[in-house]
Structure prediction request, 348 residues.
Amino acid sequence: MCKRCLDYGFPTVMGRGLFGEFKNFINPPFLIVTMPDLWEMFAHEFEGADYQLYLTDSIEQADLDRDAAGLKDIRAIIGLGGGQALDVAKWFAWRRNLSLFQAPTALSVNAVYSHRSGVRDGGKVIYRGYAVPECIFIDYDVLRAAPRHLNWSGIGDILCFRTGVLDWQYARDNGKIEAKWPFDQDLADQSLSKVRGIIDNIDGIRSMTDQGIDALVDGLKWGTSFQGSGWCPRHIEGTDHFLFYTLEKQTGKKFLHGQPVGLGIVVGTMLHETDADEMLDTIAGIGLDVRPEAMGLTWDQATEGLTGMRAYVNTLPLWHSMAHDVTISPAFVSDLRKRLDKAYAHRN
Prediction:
């Protein structure tokens, strides 16, 4: 139990049949930011409402700034969808200083519980802006109706707290910690409690029960602790996301976020020789497939990413981790492959 617990999260309503109420209390005319396939599913919820529709097709900052400047007669914004729609809604709310209401249709990333938007600047992912929603609406039935693997992906942005804390301890113990981010046991303990919340709810998350959704939401809420801790990323992520960045740069592929991050969690805990079996058992037990072939990679591509991660992360302005110091060997890759094959043998 932490001695100095950090407040976290945004105002959140959890229930059923929530989306149809938006037209009764969100100040019109409002803008709905969503995706084309999702709009077909939810358009009926807004019949008779005074709204404009924005269908997301780019997260390039220049495109978003242009479109934000062109918004006319809007008093509020609704983000309806997954991470991309929610990030674009945040961006517009920030740039136009408008009230924001977020309605996730899947919990694949922690975007809904982050102040900043994940956008691209010349193709490079950046996190900018500042938006605090009036409320987030978690509809159990909407989330349960989404493809399961999209919600399972969300565990990546929670279990990564384990590798983040391990890298933080590693940097402290090796004299490579940043002066502005000294190791904080309270922050670390709160992060690890969210990891435990996932481990203790494997069956519920796999089946997307109300309790499982509650566990996912509570873990994802901790994403706001990046802001609450003075923009310290140490207790949130490390080697896990660094492998994701490496694979994305190397292949040019766009991934379901939790898959490369989940693989990075396994790799990171293996490098630290701490909790690797528990992390892999949890990920595979929930159902998220983090094998390279499940995300459209060959093992040759995965090996290139793993062995090249050290060189790549040392070119980036990232906080120090074990990934900065360790060159992954062929023997390590072989061990990783054996572990993954065993964990997912039931899928073959």
In short: The chain is about 50% helix and 10% strand.
